[in-house]
Amino acid sequence: MSYLDQITSPTLLLDEKICRANIKRMADKAARHDMKLVPHFKTAQSHQIGDWAKEYNITEVTVSSIKMAEYLSGQGWVNIHIAFPFNPLEIPKLNKIAAKQSISVQLINAETTQMLADQLESSVGFFIEIDAGYGRTGVEVTDFGLIEEIMLIAKKSDKLKFKGFYLHPGHTYYMPDIPAIYEQSRNALGMLKNKYSTEFPNLVSRIGDTPGCAVMEDFEDIDEMGPGNFVFYDLMQAELGGCEKRDIAVCLAVPVVDIKKNRKEILVHGGGVHLAKDVLVGENGLKNFGEVVYLNENGWTIPEKKSFLKSISQEHGIIKASDELLAKVKVGDLLGILPVHSCMTADAMGEYITLDGKKVDHAEGARV
Predict the structure, then answer these.
(1) Concatenated DSSP letters for 146-161?
(2) Residue 366 falls within a domain, yes or no?
(3) Both 46 and 154 in a single domain?
(4) Where do runs of H (alpha helix) occur along the chain?
(5) Any idea what DSSP says for residue 78?
(6) CA–CA gap between residue 202 and residue 68 (Å, rounded)
(7) Does residue 133 lie within any of the structural domains?
(8) CA distance 238 to 199
(9) Which residues are bridge partners to 161 per DSSP?
(10) How far apart (Å, rounded) are the C-alpha atoms in residues 226 and 270?
(11) Most C-beta atoms within 10 A of its C-beta, which of 196, 243, 285, 367?
């Protein structure tokens, strides 16, 4: 039976071949630059996809929450890193994980560091997150007083182990000059490594955004990369130049429930609860919540003429349709939608279906 015959409602499709190719390409790039790839699994959030990653010599993984760390612990990872400023209310959960799984956290202030030093029951590693221009979170790169206060508190603890510096230049998502941002990031991490490597000879530097890791070829002496979105990619990454649309490994299958040919619009069952509401805005001001692909037995094809979701609400999606699409679609058909932001779409759906009809687990859905 075709995988398409199983679909009666919005379903997130996963092309294993494309996903594996994306993982291999980034693993090869890391190896080419003598860097360790520690992928951020906030995108995939899956045991099965984690097993695929291990086939490409990936041994450590990054997550964005302790819930995700709980889900992936005990799966053979050498270490799991929580790349979010640690929430001290979750120290009891951290202690449970750390008793059985090597784990590290991200620190940006002395208060949380002290609470961990006082309450940890097992050894836990930590990175100091650095802000070198993004402005979202992290210790400012020149705030040596705070950096050294965190280090001093940890040094007095037999449980907190300093691993290095983590930097997420997230402004690569909305600022066009990625090379300039990376020069800023390399300089920041290089300066910190030079300053503290005598005291901490094993410290590592890690950088963690997909746009930069995908397009850059000059990482200087950064030790590790931790991109996440690259396993699936999406329309946002394609617009940033990090991938081609053919590299996008997931699409949302949606049923067609009505067609308004006079308005060149198609109503589908697929809205914000499935795709989230990330949007691209074209030069003409038109909003794009996802682009149509044609589903077939082998996956999907990208049409020559673009059709896209012009608006979405909770369950509804309205496609602005090309003449090509209108000529071939009918009520009851299935269309595919390439997501604007695959991480959010996967999180919303909580499960994947492969092109051979097999379910793949996701942390937000049922374990399969």
Answers:
(1) HHHHHHHHHHT-SSEE
(2) no
(3) yes
(4) 16-32, 47-54, 66-72, 91-98, 110-119, 144-155, 178-196, 210-215, 235-240, 272-275, 323-328, 342-349
(5) S
(6) 27
(7) yes
(8) 42
(9) 125
(10) 31
(11) 243
pLDDT in tens, 357-367: 999 999 998 44
Pairing outcome for strands 280-281 and 60-63? unpaired
Per-residue pLDDT of 252-296, as tens digits, reads 999 999 999 999 999 999 999 999 999 999 888 899 999 999 999
Name 165's bridge partners: 128, 205
Q: How confident is the model at residue 171 (pLDDT cuts 50, 70, 90)?
A: low
CATH of the domain at 284: 2.40.37.20
Q: Can you give the residue range of the structural domain that contains 248? A: 3-12+244-360
**Phi, psi (5° rounding) for residue 194?**
-65, -40
Query: What's the pLDDT at 127?
Result: 98
Same-domain pairing of 49 and 167: yes
Count of structural domains, the chain: 2
**Within 10 A of 356 (CB to CB), how many other CB atoms are there?**
8
The answer to whether residues 165 and 192 touch, using CB atoms and an 8 Å cutoff, is yes
The reply to whether 26 falls in a domain is no
